[in-house]
Each structure stands twice: as structure tokens, then as C-alpha cells.
Design goal:
The protein has 16 helices and no strands. It is mainly alpha-helical and about 350 residues long.
Length: about 350
Amino acid sequence: ANTLFNIWIKYKPRLPGWYYNEKLLKVGDSLAQMKEYKLALLQCYGRYLHQFVSVNLDDIIDDVHRFKSTFFPNGFRDKNAALTFHALQERNGCIYQMIYSSDRNLQNQGSLQTCFNVLSSLRLAMQVALPQENFCWLIYNGTIHIYTICRHLMMRGQSAKVLEYLLWASICMESSIPLLSVHYLTWRATLYTAVSQCYFDCQAGIHGEIFARRGLIKIDELKQLENNCSSLENSETKNIFREATLKMSIMIFKRAVYESRRKPKSYFRPKLRVSLKEAQKLPWPRTTTERLLTEMFDSAPAQFLAILEALSDSSRHVLCPAPPVPDEIEIRDVISELFFAGLEILSGNNIKKQKE
């Protein structure tokens, strides 16, 4: 660290400002790639940003006007604007990585707060950059940083607090024209899925399904636009749309498979129900759940993935040996049918029965 410090001090007066700044950040990027986050933060990104402000940078993450006047006094067309955005974003990345290395489980309340400060700082920089189309790379990289941090926080039970940041990342991808292309659709669908998962984690499944259906509409709009612009659709593009559609369909199935079977409390429930043991001899699809799987998904891997997602519940321990036991008989039936269908898919019998 001292050697690097001395190098910067020695050569700064001898080099043009633009050249010095570029090399300063490139060295920071190299250090970050080598996971020397603290060194990159203090000697590169921090050093670059301290030319604008000497106070704690976290003190201005809530004031967009102060943020603009501090870091972009000459506007966004200034040749250093891109470097400044890059330094701000990578500084946040380094801070998070340092927290991740020292307190991976986020047991310290200070670590948790730092993560949210980083998210707020990333969002502010993206908010300022969003109207500038030439900074679409910053928006894209920002969504990656936000997603990475939010997924970590979701695993620590912070889904309710990170939801707004994932929503912001999704809307940013939709608001930047260059990022609306097919090339970025896979990533956009990943963000949509994370938002839906957040809703499910917060026991707001209906909103998770609504957001997934919204995502499906956005994907279909892009597909229609692509079809209008080009009569030829290559296999890579087809796979991109297929994967994105699958992600949304799974999140829709996650709630629909249960809700389609719920009955009003006053509804008369017959005592006789189809036995799964008897259904084993029937051709696939044998149950209501399997019929829904067949309608929504055209391959066994997709069906199995949908089953896993429908059975997952963030409120349960991962190694809990038993499924949740809801009050409704119909929901218990669905859970049994999901396990029943999953075993059939794993055995490969469903494919044989469909061929027969």
C-alpha cells in the first residue's frame, strides 16, 4: 500500500490529469480482479473521488442535487464523467466485497447497514445516469451489483427490504433503450424472477404472480417487435426467449398450482378422493397438478424445475425432512401430487407413458 501511495504521489505532478486518472482507475480494476478490494478502494477509487469531496461519501447518498453538484460540476458531457461514474460504482462494489469477506453471514448490524448504504449509493448513481443513453453500461453493471447484494441479503431474511432495489433494477433495464434488446433479455428475466421471489418470501404470492405475468407480457412485446423487424429468427434468439418465458412461467406456476385448487370455506368437500396409489397405473398426466404441468411446460426438465420451485418455501429450513402442513385439504393434496409428479419425472416413466 505504501509503495502504491508513493508511486501516485511521485507521478501525479508529471502526468496529464486525464492520463493519471485513467491509469489510477485501471490499476483499481486490476486490484479488484485480484480481490485486493481494500487496496483498490483506498489507493485508487477513493483517491480519485477525494478530488471532489473530502467528507464521507456516504453522507450524500440521499441528496441527488448535492450528488450532481459534487461529482459532476461540469455536467455529464465532461470527459471525466464516465470515469467518475465508474469510480463511484466500483467503490461500492469493493465495500460490499470487503463486508462479504469479513462477515459473510451478516451477523453484525453494522455490516447489514453498510450493505443497504451501498445499495442506496448504487441506486443514486443509476438515477443520475439513467437519462444519459451513453451511460447504459453503468445501468447494466449497476443492476448486476444490486442483484448480487440483494440475493445475499435475501438469503439472510431481508427480502422485504431489498424488494425496492430489485424493482428499481428491473425498471432501469426497461427504461434504457439499449438494454431493451434481446441480448439483455436473459438478464432482465433474471431480475424479474428475483422480484417475484421477493414477493413470495414476503408471503405476498399474489404480487409475485402478478409481477411474473407482467414480465411475461414484456417478453412477448419484445418477441413481437423482433418478429416485425426480422422474418428470420435464429436458434440462439429462440433459446433466449424460451429461457426468459420459462423463468416467468415457473413463478406463475408457483402460486397458480395451489390457488387453482383452493375452495371457499363453506364449500362442501367430498370424502372420497382419488388415491395416488391408484393413479400410478394411469397414463400421464394422471392428476390435476400433472395436467397443469403439461399445459404450462413442454419438457420434463422444465416441469421438474417448476415442481421444485412450487415446493420451495423460504420460511422453512432447507433440511426440514417434511413438507409444510397447511390447513386446507386441497393444498395438502397439491403438495402430495407435486412429490408424486416429481418422482415420476425422475424415474422417466412419464415420458414412457406419454409415448404409449
